[in-house]
């Protein structure tokens, strides 16, 4: 039998082996993960011929935040899943229409630390509304370092966005799309620039200036309550547009305006009547934040994907038509669409 002294030595030895094994496994996992993201940066994001040389990036961000729209269990009563099935359909329309001409990058808040040098903010630990402000910093930094186009995941895409992108960057300045202005600043117009729907070439100086502005803004302790009301980011972009540092894309082209210039509201999307959209539109922007905020329309966010097509809402009709159209369009194509989830 082992005496107590030998038993003590064996326990120490086993403990050391266990600790070393644990550290080794974690280190191996870390190196493997880092290697994966190094490959993404090297090949996909830096224009390797393996992924289609000179294909612009199309950034689609999704927020995975705690919600109670679908319970994982009765005990938890919440989850961090997206839990908005219609968004999977809108993302599908973007991929199907644009995947041949863009490197489509599906990203979330964790992407920033993987792709942005010196990013050290864990957004999971940041409270609202500051989390949203830092998220804007991250999105604009991705646009600066890698270029491409930022598109909301709630955009119902009806045709390839490559034409819009090429036209937008032709003047060697960023382009930015309009949105419906919800700020209470009466000096603002009905429509204002939307940094969640814009594009630029890599290392653009205007985007660099915008990033610096957003960083300074987020460090202001009095900012969180003020900016929501004044729309200061849109004001910064409006100033850049007036100075020729950005170009503004008419909201008709992304489905936030009717053909005659009136705004397309959530109420219009939920009615049965077809919209008077312009022939040059690339799709329809669905205000996802409003669907979640307004109790009257929250049912739409909860619908399973197959049931979305069955509603009488006109947005369901457009979704179904776009999904079917894009499926038919690419069924005969031999080109592989480029999509990566980072």
Automatic annotation (TrEMBL):
Keyword Transmembrane helix on entry: yes
Transmembrane residue ranges: 7-25
Record key words, sorted: Membrane, Transmembrane, Transmembrane helix
Transmembrane in keyword set: yes
Name by which UniProt lists this protein: Nucleotide-diphospho-sugar transferase domain-containing protein
Organism: viral metagenome
